[in-house]
Design brief:
heterodimer, A: alpha/beta, 5 helices, about 40% helix, B: Nucleotidyltransferase, domain 5, two-stranded parallel ribbon, about 20% strand
Chain lengths: ~180, ~160
Amino acid sequence: MGKTSARDRMSPEINAGSMADIAFLLLIFFLVTTTIVEDKGITVKLPPWSEEEPDITRLKTRNVFSVLVNAQDQLLVRGQVMDVDRLREEAKLFIANPYNQPDMAEKPTKAIISLKNDRGTSYKAYLQVYNELKAAYNELWDEMSLSKYGVPYSDDMPFAYKKTIRDEIPFVLSEAEPTSFGEE
Amino acid sequence: MSKFTKKRGKASPTVSTASLPDIVFMLLFFFMVVTVLRDAELKVKVSTPYATELTKLEEKSLVNYLYIGRPVEKFRELYGTKPRLQLGDKFANIVDIPLFLEKHKIKVPESRHGQITSSLRVDGEVTMGIVQDVKTQLRKSGQLKVNYSAKKDPKKSK
């Protein structure tokens, strides 16, 4: 009787000394296999494929903001050579048209940005231009959101707010089939 | 003399290692969480350009990756230096894209097919020709949600 009770009282303990070793092993495995990937980028909605080119000649020229990028990564905006740093401001001015100038968009809903590049344009330059145009819209949305709702525009906003803003200033960017003068 | 050699000095101080497992586990969990097990070995050099207007890709399972860049050093002899497309872990041609998209699609539940995003990881130095061809093929395949992968610009942060 006394024998069994003595054994019962001995609580069985697992030796935790090797726990650190096991943890180290796992740690080293994950250290080696880790790649901290930055999965960020500019999200774009491509237009559905259609055989014929969209005809933008029907549009009034005052509503079209044409941006051309050639194979040397130079910009031609509405017929004028421009530096990429100025593109954002110009685009904003064109879309919002705060002074009702006759050569700019009648209203933001009518504004169309037409982007055309060459097959020889570097991807870096293309993305930079796209980024600036997107930034112009983002800043306009921000400004409008701040004046209307007092908060900057973000994806977490109530859907109705976002829709109101997007309806008033829709993001319209049409990309034409590129020219092929400078293909390597 | 003996005044200075105290008994306390002789006992070597030991650091308790009892909390070591906890520290290691903490590190382990950190790395487990941030780890992305790379499924594809890059055969093309991809250094994405900088941008500011970025959105984050949320769900990894809804994303398929297309890499475009020049082949890395060891594949140059075989494939040359012209920019190439890589799908999964091998070089591919533009015509292989629909099959690649379809293979990814069957792994995604049907109700979420509309949320699939194609992440274009393109090297900044590549010309638009091949990118345009890929885009056209994506449009023809009905894959319209595209994300141009880019890094956050360290100079111009909003």
